[in-house]
Design a protein that fits this description.
This protein is mainly α. Helix content is 80%, strand content 0%. Mean pLDDT is 85; it is low at 132-137.
């Protein structure tokens, strides 16, 4: 996986999945960096966050152009997620000052657990969508459950700062059971919020842990930027259930490898 030409290709695949489903950044890229490239877990998290920031920015811009972003939901989530992710990076920095090797080993297993959680939530989302009626946009004049959205942001933000996983997988699964948006707007809203969340986490990793491999992230971005544009454009046309089922199985496979 260390070949230069494979990194842009993998970035293309992950970027397309981010645009299509709102998922794919942390849950696929972090295991690749740990298992495929042998990076320490903390460095993999920081590099993935840096790569994901620009990928999500491009995806958010495309979804905004398509009118598939609900800014009210983005604001409510960010109120909780941005402070929480900064707190998580501060905790990770403190733990690294005590025992770097032990933290990386524990973090690798925690990432494996998060992959299992992400896969389970994704499968639940697939099963729920098969039973539910067609979703409609939430009334723009209606009341949002602000408290629950902020709480989702806090949980997701802390986990993203620690593992880089959760900005798409965890948060979008919790949004599905909290508010009602059509599938395209759900993905676009999640991608737009994820840009703010992973951007804040990436900056914190650069400033405190200094664990971002800029050269590697740049090679991934060569593929991921066109990929996320392609995926965002396809989001209104491609059926998601088969794609989400395959993605969940892939996450479980990665989790088994991380937990061995």
């Amino acid at each position: 996986m260390g070949s230069d030409w494979l990194l842009p290709f993998y970035g293309l695949v992950v970027g397309t999945l981010v645009g299509l489903t709102g998922m794919g950044g942390g849950v696929l890229m972090t295991p690749l960096l740990v298992l495929g490239l042998g990076m320490p877990a903390t460095a993999a998290v920081g590099t993935d966050l840096a790569y994901s920031t620009l990928t999500k920015l491009v995806g958010a811009w495309q979804h905004w152009r398509q009118g598939t972003v609900d800014l009210r939901v983005v604001r409510a989530l960010a109120i909780g997620s941005v402070p929480a992710t900064l707190t998580a990076v501060a905790v990770l920095f403190f733990l690294h000052t005590i025992d770097t090797s032990a933290v990386d080993a524990a973090l690798e297993r925690f990432i494996g657990v998060m992959l299992v959680v992400a896969a389970s939530l994704l499968l639940y989302k697939v099963l729920r969508s098969s039973k539910a009626a067609t979703q409609v946009d939430v009334d723009q004049s209606g009341e949002l459950p602000i408290g629950r959205l902020v709480a989702i942001g806090i949980l997701g933000g802390f986990l993203v700062g620690f593992t880089s996983i959760g900005s798409g997988s965890l948060i979008i699964a919790l949004l599905v059971v909290t508010i009602t948006l059509n599938p395209e707007k759900m993905v676009g809203t999640d991608v737009a919020h994820a840009f703010l969340l992973v951007g804040a986490a990436a900056i914190a990793h650069v400033l405190f842990l200094r664990d971002v491999d800029v050269a590697l992230a740049s090679k991934l971005l060569i593929g991921s930027i066109p990929g996320v544009l392609i995926g965002s454009r396809m989001a209104v046309r491609v059926p998601r259930r088969p794609l989400q089922t395959c993605l969940a199985l892939l996450l479980l496979t990665s989790a088994i490898s991380m937990l061995r």
